[in-house]
DNA sequence: ATGAGGGCATAAGCTGTCTTTATGAGCGGT
DNA sequence: ACCGCTCATAAAGACAGCTTATGCCCTCAT
């Protein structure tokens, strides 16, 4: 209730003022791994005083001692070990971001050109790219995102070497292999009536209720319409998974989304899964390529990483 | 193969030079949500030119156009939508970090004092704290991490209101309720012989092989020793889950860890799960409190969030 | 004992980034 | 035609982080 506390929570955002920047977190991880400030500094290509000062400023910012300094090295405190583990999650997310972002740059010299549907590009590809980078560090990948039609088009016009789609059907002219299974699920904000519901929803009830949906033509919408016999009733139609999630979290109504998209939200209880019965909302995720042109080289490397 | 490219990948670290900082990512999320640079700027408490310049510098850094500007607002480009979703993962990890870090500060006025074992504090508590903050924004939580004995000690001396343990036994003097189930799993680096193994490991084989383990006395080690009859043979003993994971990832040998701890690593294929048969490596995660003092108020709120 | 080496802290100066203030320009509805 | 919204540009100030240059502490080997 103090003025400061009030403002801190009222501002709400300002995360970047309470969380050390990525450079600081990387430094902390290096200190944890190497057991020495100077060693960590060397690894990151900065000087020892810079590392010392930076760790100290993180400790000031967090209000917690992170490392025990001694004349023969530095070890994490108990709190420091916790903070370091939480920091690792941020850095891993940043690594995935980096792998994805590098692939988004249009480069003519890419040895592997991938085109993928949105959901796959958002939730699965960064991980695959990281794994690929670990195994084949010199493979330059470029990524283009689009719907199933776009994927087919770019593959057939030789603008891409490997594609990923999430629809019900495989575009003609393409061979495919199933690489994972996905389910659409119904979710609501925790405050919604359905959030407390134990008895599964029936198809009729789902079809009769206005839902927050992706636009017609999206892979997600295709599957839902097919499952309900083309009857899905939109409360609003939004053009991205993100917008649908945001609307559902804010309590606008129930939404239908891939379980890939809402893992985090379910874990944090920002959204609640509503049980459904008698409706087939499963779909396959597939890798695709032009008929007959079985993937070779880098494309084959990536494909082998996607096996679940 | 160019000089610049060479250096970028050779440095390897330097993540913070290729990924925008948290402030920039938050700004991008706000732009995506509000559809306007100026609106996002207002929400974050900065001026419109600052937002404009910052978004522009992110686009320069990533080499990709993120937003389509128009005289009546800004919308994300396709690439921008992808980048924004990847950015959201980073920001969510940062929110968990923040929730945890705030709880680590020692504050006398905390209305809820929690003491938890390491694994739970590392992997589950931040999410619970975020959910608690969402539902009860004014609950100040403080967190202390330690082993089972520490948890019991602090609860019984009234230094904590609610505890979480992961061992096989409940310390005497405490009541408990099971809040989740956990399994220890055997993992190796992808290059290890066991990584390609299909036939499950037997207890005898596991007991005969030197493993990367937590130190004796840790919850993880207790469960493993019990399951193998006290026979676990350490290749090395390390004092943190983190260190065990790092050793396993680097290929030092097979490790035994909670599946909570290696979710990310398995998804990114940095580690591979080795099937095991005939060994009971399950354990319960429990909330605990002094016998008779059933949790009330904030403690009860938190407890109700942990139900799986 | 004593000197060498590794480890950390402090001080001073520099540089770059991000910010604000001030202003201009495009588009749309009234 | 004007007002309101949007975004862009330019100039100047504030701040954070880095480097260089030291000094102290501890340990180990000579």
From TrEMBL, chains A, B:
One of its GO terms (molecular function) is transcription cis-regulatory region binding. This is LysR family transcriptional regulator. Coiled coil: none annotated. It comes from the Bacteria. Belongs to the LysR transcriptional regulatory family. Residues 20-77 form the HTH lysR-type domain. SUPFAM superfamilies: Periplasmic binding protein-like II, Winged helix' DNA-binding domain.
